[in-house]
Design goal:
Blueprint (H helix, E strand, L loop, with lengths): L1 E9 L6 E9 L5 H13 L8 H11 L9 H14 L2 E9 L9 H16 L6 E6 L6 H18 L13 E6 L4 H17 L4 H4 L6 E5 L5 E8 L19 H4 L2 H20 L9 H8 L10 H13 L11 H15 L7 H20 L6
Parallel strand pairs: 1-4, 4-5
Antiparallel strand pairs: 1-2, 2-3, 3-7, 6-7
Length: 373
């Protein structure tokens, strides 16, 4: 199981960016880490010294942390526990709203940052639980619709990057309060990013990490800040590399190969309809429904649905494993690229490919349906 904790924030002046931070862990972050940090804060002799004493008294009375309202003492004790006890990946994205389009409002930037950060959290075959801090206007419907749009974008992007694996795990969303222990940790880490963006890297530097990546556009209207904590998270085993995909693929692929890709997709989907896998259970209805329609000429959006589910299960199964020959690896990656192409709606090449697949489907069903068995 993968656990993902999300916090959204508006940064302080002079760079009032809007963005989201996401803490990704293979283990649930429980109350214990917060309780230990609170107890250590209580024992800290510095909590009696002004001006922090009022802030620390409020934090202790509240029983949980909120970075923008806590003192340096509270920050220190919670960060100590994060460094000591959490193995995770932190990803964040932020936008300087003063330099962005005036047509977007803060919640749009929150949504964009959340969607883009979700890509890192989806790099797994395991089920994932998202815990997202509540904000006005945020609903389960919005989160689920955003996720559907993200999946569509991922599917169509495979055409341009067929050598990169893409995963479609089961995602479960929960909208939670600020006192969720994982959200409290995310809040502090995003606060440290906020401080770094605004010129103070002290707290960011105190985050113990073997890898940190900080990026920002030249105009400083967009940036991200990613790092590993402890051992990080376990990624899925990958059985092909960037160099596995053949060069000049358009010169390799013929109309006959496009036909074979189409037949391959039908047979793979039908196989897993008859031989379901537990970790594909969230996709099983989609697999079964399209498998039943292979001979139905009036099935609505058949090709789009077939290619979509084939691409969703490609890396989730995975179709390429440690016994796959190099020639089969190339063949399967080519199928991945050219079955993603019809899902794009902004290129002439995609339109003509959709028309080709539609035509051969009709011809096969009418004249040679045994090919589909």
């Amino acid at each position: 199981m993968r656990y993902v904790y999300v916090d959204e924030s508006t940064f302080a002046e002079p760079n009032p960016c809007v963005g989201a931070g996401m803490l990704i862990s293979d283990e649930e972050i429980k109350d214990e880490i917060i309780n230990i940090a609170i107890e250590n804060l209580k024992k800290d002799p510095d909590i009696h010294k002004p001006p922090e004493n009022k802030l620390d008294k409020r934090t202790i009375s509240r029983g949980w942390f909120h970075a923008s309202e806590d003192s340096k003492n509270a920050h220190s004790h919670l960060l100590t526990e994060i460094n000591k006890n959490i193995n995770a990946e932190f990803v964040s994205e932020f936008h300087d709203i003063a330099k962005k389009s005036k047509n977007l409002i803060n919640r749009d930037y929150y949504a964009v940052s959340l969607i883009n950060s979700t890509l890192s959290a989806m790099h797994t075959r395991d089920n994932a639980k998202f815990f997202i801090e509540h904000r006005p206007g945020l609903t389960m419907s919005i989160l689920e619709n955003n996720h559907k749009e993200l999946e569509k974008e991922l599917l169509s992007s495979i055409y341009n990057l067929p050598m990169l694996p893409v995963y479609f795990p089961k995602i479960e969303y929960s909208i939670v309060k600020k006192n969720n222990p994982g959200v409290q940790c995310t809040d502090l880490l995003l606060w440290a990013v906020n401080r770094r963006v605004n010129g103070d890297s002290k707290w960011h530097d105190r985050i113990k990490s073997r890898f940190k990546s900080v990026m920002m556009t030249q105009s400083k209207d967009w940036g991200n800040d990613d790092f590993l904590i402890g051992k990080g998270v376990k990624g899925p085993v990958r059985y092909y590399t960037d160099s596995s995909f053949p060069i000049d693929s358009d010169k390799i692929v013929s109309r006959e190969m496009l036909l074979k890709f189409y037949l391959k997709a039908i047979k793979i989907v039908e196989y897993y309809s008859n031989n379901p896998l537990q970790h594909l259970s969230h996709l099983q209805n989609e697999i079964n429904n399209i498998a039943k329609e292979k001979l139905n000429l009036v099935c609505k959006n058949y090709l789009e649905r077939l290619f979509s589910i084939y691409l969703k299960i490609f890396d989730m199964i995975p179709l390429i494993n440690n016994t796959t020959s190099q020639s089969d690896v190339q063949y399967l990656l080519l199928s991945r690229k050219y079955l993603s192409l019809p899902l794009k709606h902004d290129e002439l090449h995609a339109i003509t490919t959709r028309m080709f697949y539609s035509k051969i489907r009709k011809e096969i069903i009418k004249n040679n349906p045994s090919l589909l068995n």
